[in-house]
Structures are given as structure tokens and as C-alpha cells.
Design goal:
Distance between the termini: 14 Å
Strand content: under 5%
Radius of gyration: 11 Å
Mean pLDDT: 97
Order of helices and strands: HHHH
Low-confidence stretches: none
Structural class: mainly alpha
Number of helices: 4
Shape: globular
Largest sheet: none
Length: about 70
Amino acid sequence: MEELLELLEEIKPDVDFNTEEGLIDNAILDSLDIMSIVAEITDKFDIVISPADIIPTNFNSAKAMWEMIERLK
């Protein structure tokens, strides 16, 4: 999880990913941010994120992203 938080903070340093739970719902992340995050997660964790996985539920919080990573490993 720590690796994910570091990755997210590099992409969007002004967001508190430890506590924010509405990254998509509150328009904190836009589509370009999501594509950057998907690319970085894919490289860092050696997983494949399919288009079906790119849904708001999986990207609304760092915890949701981590759960998706764990599921796809």
C-alpha cells in the first residue's frame, strides 16, 4: 500500500490519498490522472488493468485501488 501511496502522491501531490474517499465522485482526479495512474500501477505491480476495471468504484480512494491491485495480482 505504501508503494501505491507514493505513486499517487507523485501524480497528484496536493491530494491527501490517506483520507480522501471521493477521488472520482468529487472530481479530484480527471481522466488523464486516471490513465496515468493505470499506467503506473500496471508497470509497478506487474498487473493488467482491463477497461472493465476502470470504473469509479475502483479509483475513488487509495484503498479501493489497493483492493483492485490485490485482486488482479
